[in-house]
Design a protein that fits this description.
Layout (H helix, E strand, L loop, with lengths): L8 E8 L5 H11 L1 E2 L21 H4 L9 E6 L2 E6 L8 H8 L4 E7 L6 H13 L3 E6 L8 H12 L2 E4 L1 E4 L7 E4 L4 E5 L11 E4 L1 H8 L1 H15 L6 H5 L3 E6 L8 H11 L6 E2 L5 E2 L6 E9 L8 E9 L2 E2 L3 E4 L4 E4 L3 E5 L2 E4 L2 E2 L4 E5 L9 E3 L16 E7 L5 H14 L3 E4 L9 E4 L3 H14 L3 E5 L4 E5 L4 H5 L5 E5 L4 E5 L2 H10 L5 E3 L6
Bound molecules: guanosine-5',3'-tetraphosphate.
Length: 523
């Protein structure tokens, strides 16, 4: 790739409720496209090597998940960066950060299950961040729900107007292909054994489709006409503004509709654009280099016990080895060891363009939300952290491992595995961990044990609500009954309450105290 003439970028994430088919689709996308990152392609659940993430059994069981970063592939003259998101709802905070790094999201919906809790949360996060969403109704090869019902749910529950680009020919479980609503033709799919290779797609003009497939075509045509009468046609401005969502019907397992999805990503998803800085100014993509860190992870692979900060390039061209400035500290920063990472595979990255994801190795100082840049200084807005709803104290079980305990807690805090809260009252030996979902505690405990050899004892605290307090009022809030004030590692004082009613009672009784709500995870 020439430094002056990069191929256009599309940077996307696939999001879904667990089991909707995200891993299957990721593999199918890689199969259709040409994987650029020489990563031995995507790992399938079956043949993952034991070293991938032996630090965490629960992750191994799930396949592609929270250790992966970004898969880069070429399709139709474009470079697509597919940024991976964690599957479990307890990691919604991670997902939120990942969504800060993409320009569009592909939402997978299981044709039989329809909208599930995590689907709703993720749609809300996309709406909140203004990320355009392409919807894929997956598993159409299996019995499922009525397509109009699925669309109604999206419109009612998510307030996004669905605009199907394809319409299934055959009910769920009897998938012949789709009616391409814009071309007006029938795209016939043919099964291949186990979906192991690209599924053949045959394009048949409308006047011959009826004879080719019979009654299902007439039904599809009827559906298409109903949609047209209802005005449910693709609207690019509506899609970009987050008012509408284009919908296609697919079977990731059989590779049906995967090529179409790639075509749509290239055609409809926005190219990387200018990024708004914290001071409101815009960093244009052809300005000097800048990037922001959206994920920090360490110890993900026993073969590479190091720490990676993943950054999305916002502007300019990245050259490995270039010196950049870390906005938070003003310090210069070497990028000699920049890598691209997907799963356990790593390769050095020589160059990167806006929209690409780079992994910076052992970038000790970098935190989630940090900006790095060359040339004129810039700092992008911090990624807000969610309101934690679960709290526990952590203590080391073996006093001889205290130093490792402290280091582990500090590093996992930096990665955002949990938030760490401290107070003089509780002291250094029993920090309070705060999480959006309880599984974050399990991850922390497993990693403290495996990576730092510092097993921890966690004791759940009876709080479920955190509010941000003004530093000058912290002492007054702390003096109230049944309230505890602790400081998050970014310096923010948080007041913890047993429940929302308690917090509201304090607000009523002390109207001059400011108890600011933190962004909710959407649940
Ligand atoms: P996830 O990453 O979103 O959690 O989902 P994943 O791809 O692991 O898929 C969950 C299950 O759904 C898998 O079956 C997968 O084979 C199946 N699946 C995914 N897409 C389709 C599809 O288009 N049609 C059908 N019929 N099934 C699909 P599993 O039995 O749980 O796992 P496995 O043993 O097959 O790997």
């Amino acid at each position: 790739m020439g430094p002056t003439d990069p191929r256009p970028r599309r940077t996307i994430a696939v999001i879904s409720h667990p089991d909707a088919g995200k891993s299957t689709l990721t593999e199918a996308l890689a199969l259709h496209a040409q994987v650029i990152t020489e990563a031995g392609a995507v790992h399938s659940k079956g043949n993952r090597k034991a070293t991938v993430s032996d630090w965490m059994e629960m992750e191994k069981a799930r396949g592609i998940s929270i250790t992966s970063a970004a898969l880069q592939f070429e399709y139709a003259g474009h470079v697509v960066n597919l940024v991976d998101t964690p599957g479990h709802a307890d990691f919604s905070e991670d997902t939120y950060r990942v969504l800060a790094a993409v320009d569009a999201a592909v939402m997978l919906v299981d044709a039989a299950k329809g909208l599930e809790p995590q689907t709703l949360k993720l749609f809300q996060v996309c709406a909140h961040r203004g990320i355009p969403v392409l919807t894929v109704i997956n598993k159409w090869d299996r019995p499922g729900r009525d397509p109009f019902e699925l669309l109604d749910d999206i419109e009612r529950e998510i307030k996004l107007r669905p605009t199907p680009l394809t319409w299934p020919v055959g009910i769920a479980g009897d998938f012949h292909g789709v009616l391409d609503r814009r071309a007006g033709e029938f795209v016939r799919y043919t099964r291949t054994a186990g979906g192991a290779t690209r599924a053949p797609e045959e394009h048949i003009p409308a006047d011959r489709a009826g004879e080719a497939v019979g009654a299902p075509w007439d039904e599809a045509l009827e559906g298409h006409e109903l949609l047209t009468a209802d005005g449910a046609d693709h609207d690019q401005d509506g899609f970009l503004a987050g008012r509408t969502t284009p919908v296609i019907f697919a079977s990731a397992l059989l590779n049906f509709g995967v090529g179409q999805l790639l075509d749509l990503v290239v055609e409809l998803a926005p190219a990387p654009g200018a990024t708004r800085a914290a001071d409101g100014s815009l960093r244009a993509i052809d300005d000097e280099f800048s990037a922001f860190v959206f994920k920090v992870q360490s110890g993900m692979d026993t073969a590479h016990r190091d720490r990676l900060a993943y950054a999305r390039i916002c502007s300019g061209v990245f050259h490995r080895g270039m010196s950049v400035t870390h906005a938070a500290t003003g310090r210069a920063f070497s990028t000699k060891y920049a890598q691209v990472v997907f799963g356990r595979e790593r390769t050095s990255v020589e160059e990167g363009y806006p929209g690409d994801i780079i992994g910076l190795v052992n970038a000790g100082a970098l935190r989630v939300g940090d900006t790095i840049y060359a040339g004129p200084p810039v700092a992008f807005p911090a990624i807000p952290s969610f309101a934690p709803e679960h709290f526990a104290t952590a203590t080391v079980t073996d006093a001889g491992r205290w130093k490792q305990f402290r280091k582990g807690i500090e590093q996992l805090d930096e990665e955002g595995v949990v938030q760490v809260l401290r107070s003089e009252l509780r002291g250094e030996h029993a920090p309070v961990l705060a999480a959006v979902g309880p599984m974050q505690f399990e991850v922390l405990a497993a990693r403290m044990d495996a990576e730092y050899r510092a097993p921890v004892r966690l004791e759940t605290l009876g709080y479920s609500v955190a509010r941000q307090v003004r530093p000058d009022q912290a002492a007054r809030v702390a003096a109230l009954r049944d309230v505890e004030v602790l400081t998050r590692s970014d310096g923010t004082p948080l007041a913890l309450f047993s429940d929302r009613w308690k917090a509201e009672a304090v607000e009523r009784m002390h109207p001059d105290l400011v108890l600011e709500r933190l962004p909710a995870s959407g649940g």
